[in-house]
User: Fold this.
Amino acid sequence: MTKTLNNLRLLLLAAWIGGAVFFSAVMAPNAFRVLRSFNFANASEVAGTMVTGALSVVNTSGVVVSVLALVIAFLNRKSFTTRGLKLQVILLAIVGISTAVGEWVIAARMRSLRAVMRLPIDQMPGDDPGKLTFNTLHGYSVAALSVAIIAALIAFFAVTASAPGAHQVKGRSGGDY
Assistant:
C-alpha cells in the first residue's frame, strides 16, 4: 500500500508539473502570439482572458495536488527519514502556498483591475497606474508559478530519492547491495 500511495503521489506531481510547464511555456505565449498576429484591436485582452481561465485551473490544481501529496506523505511518514519527510513537506507546502497566492491574491487582484479599467488593457496608456499595477502583478504571477514548478520538481525528485527501496541496487546475482 505504501508503494502504491507513493506512486500516486509521484503521478499527481508529474501530471501537475507537466500541465504547469505546458501552460507556461506553450499555451500562454502562443495565445498572445497567435491572436496578435491577426492584428485584433484587443488581442492581448482576448488572450489574457483565455490565459486567466487556464491559469486558474493550473493554480487551483496546484493547491489540490499539494494537499493530496501532503496527506499521502503523512500516511507514509514511517517509510521516510525525518529529514526526507521534512524536505517533502516544506516543498509541497511551497507548491500549495505559491499556487494559492497566485490564484487567490495575485490573479484575483489582476481580475479586479481588469474589471474596473475603463478600456481594454491594449488601449490603456503605458503610464496608466492601473496598467502599471497590472503589469507588476503579472510579474508576481509568473514568479509565483515559477516557484511552485521548481518546488514541485524538487519535491518529485525528493520523493523518488527517499522512497522505500530507492537506494537498493540489484547485482548480477539478484541480491541487494
